[in-house]
């Protein structure tokens, strides 16, 4: 009887081991959006909420709506992405505080098909405070339609195909120390009527703009004492009109002095500005003088690490091939030509091997840096104690049946 019990226990443990082995050997292929990786979120928040790096990435399945008096705090290191069916990431009537840091930024990835931050027109309290964030791969970064406001600092914005919009923000707006790469412009209207102080303004200062899509700043209105300040910025690899006054506007006021254009030729700079000098329908002139001779030291500089691996890898095989090619034509006798071709072929083989292995390494590093571990990641599912208990309970009778059958069929 004791031997029988021991046998049942051993059989149960064996079944459990087999089950766990199968789970480990064949991990789940479900997408993160189904809940295997990260945290799914969507809909209207009812209480103050904090998104943590430990539960990142956050996959938005439906537009996040933040009502009045509700605050969403996003901690450094968090990645936020969306399912393909979502066309708007946040609708803000309350507050968003997303403050990363220089070594742990907050990433918002729009999957190339959505607007990131919007406010609801009748509500005056919508506010977003974004610091050390990465906003990439979407339509517009922000679409604040009347009486919302935000601050955007120390952040990187890239690959945004539609203009962002500030329609009479309720408080002064600061867009400072950011890098804009391959983005559409910002359309701005200001009015001191909605602000708590006597002047309402938008300050776009100390930013770097690279590879613009269309205009960078459009001023369509500036009522009362309100104003748009665009100062101490740098423009690199930009083209076409950079600053413009909306031709249909009845009032506009933009100060664009002390920017670095990459040239001191005012004729060239003037060709990048569209105002009353170009069209009598524009309501004002844009003052862009004086120019900066050099980028402001507080303005971000263009990142350089990305192109550096490409030139270092390309010339190395070229330098090794040149000496062998010079040796090949020099010996004309047949006796010396045969070993020369052997050396050439062997040396070429040795050179091509590290080059081919090096290329995938660099590309894989870039992919891992640029793409967060979101939708295509896989995880090994956890085995709960309940499942293990069920296996033990079911495994016992199965083992007993197997043992009885083996006893019955045992030869005499």
Provide a compact summary of the structure.
The protein has 412 residues and is of the alpha/beta class.
Walk me through this protein's architecture.
The chain is an alpha/beta fold. It has a domain at 38-274: Pectate Lyase C-like (3 Solenoid). The chain is built from 6 helices and 25 strands. The protein has helices at residues 2-25, 266-271, 309-313, 315-327, 334-370, 385-408, and strands spanning 39-44, 49-51, 58-66, 71-74, 79-82, 88-92, 95-99, 106-109, 115-119, 127-131, 133-138, 142-145, 149-153, 156-160, 164-167, 173-176, 179-191, 201-205, 208-210, 213-223, 227-231, 234-236, 243-245, 254-255, 273-274. The strands form 2 sheets. Strands 3-5-8-11-14-17-15-12-9-6 form a 10-stranded parallel beta barrel. The protein has a 9-stranded parallel beta sheet with strand order 2-4-7-10-13-16-18-21-24, with no helix packed on it. The longest helix is centred in the C-terminal third of the chain and has 37 residues, at 334-370. Residues 20-36 and 314-383 have low confidence and may be disordered.
